[in-house]
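Repro case for the chain-ordering regression, as requested:
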Amino acid sequence: IIAGLALASMLSLEPVRAQQSMPKEKILLAHGAHREGKRTDAVMEKWRGYGLGQFIHWGLYAIPGGEWNGKQYNGAAEWIRSWNGIPNATYDSLIYKFNPTAFDATAWAKSAKQMGARYVTFTTKHHDGFCMWPSKYSKYTVAASPYKKDIVKAVVDAYDKEGIDVILYFSVMDWSHPDWRYEIKTKEDSVAFERFKKFTRNQLIELLTNYPKAKGLWFDGTWDKSWVKQAAFADDLETEMRKLRPGLIIGSRFRADENGKRHFDSNGVLMGDYEQGWERKIPNKIEEVHGNDWDCVMTVPENQWGYNKAWNGHIKSANELLEMTAKCVSLGGNFVLNFGPQGDGAIRQEELNLATKIGDWMKLNQEAIYNCGYAGYEKQDWGYFTKKTGSDQVYMVVFNVPVSGALRLKMPAKTKISKAYMLADREEKILPEEINSNEYFLKLKKKDHQEPFVIVLETGKNAENKESIYEKAKT
Ligand SMILES: C[C@@H]1O/C(=N\OC(=O)Nc2ccccc2)[C@@H](O)[C@H](O)[C@@H]1O
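-- result from build under test --
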């Protein structure tokens, strides 16, 4: 095209327009993203509105709980098999100690329900390769443990009964499988990894077949070169899984495109149905989520997913976790809080206490979290705006009350407030005092709030559109 234009100009057929900055040419990809933009089906619409979820990391690693022969493992407790202080066979013999007599899936599900979680992501197989279901493709499963029973089934059934949707976590990387490779260097590696790919496909089809109620798969352990090079295989497998389970939700961490690009393909388009990169981190502004669905998965300690006896370092409080929840929802995402049950199957008291506190708050304020998203308003110091999907209803989730006891509220131009009141007590009206066009003071009855609260703002059509009482500053 450029040569043609240049030739034309030389022949003075027509002046060449200054070369527009040509849009970046899309690279033709066989195994890139197969959809651009958010999914619009009902299953994904429901996922988008969950707001709050629970992650559960449970497996053999919960038995040592981050400690071995009295020594504290400094990494994440669920990674302890990789500690060079423990021979793999010694770790793997933990299977003979796995008999969680305190495991009660119904109690877990009821605690999650009370907390206000609307979905749960459960570890069917973590990097250590131990299967929490009786997989017929592995000997290293609950079936070979003293416990014997199918834990994945118990969790899926119990959470489904509480109306909480289940997503199955699955680690592709499987340290215990003889055919797993970090990268393919030799012919032998390649032959072994072909067997591993078949094994992985078999287990995934088995999970989707055994647990049809599961709404999605949360993939992990997909960052090593061996798997990143499997663009065609992983793409075909994703297509097969979606065909087997229409509506299946798969995140951006499952597969890479043929150039090894993960999460976003070579054209910058999100792989899968939502972005999975927000692991123990939250975006600060809407631009960072690029118009995609996303969820943030978060630990209570700094970085412990599996049960760790040492409950130390910075342990997040209920208010911190509520602020993370509100921040995620205010930017159009979901917040997924991790629980690491003990080796005996009981959830530790500290985590149960957090679930209770979060649940008590959610009972009063869930309307500002469920089926809410980005309001499009300017972020302000007092906290986070959320907006009810498909309505004008806007919420202020307040975490910071200034010493004045009054909140300064800046609304977008032409957006008037007709009513404002406390969500937890609708009788407590708040009279916005307009101090400038679209700027208001909201005086609060109570000043010493010990936990976040929500103010409902009625805006939109029924708000009177009186002109601002202030002259525009003459500048
Ligand atoms: C949810 C966590 O997921 C993991 N790893 O996550 C990542 O590797 N996250 C990641 C990596 C690169 C960029 C962004 C996130 C696991 O290793 C860990 O044990 C836990 O199951």
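Ordering looks correct now. The longest helix spans residues 187-210.
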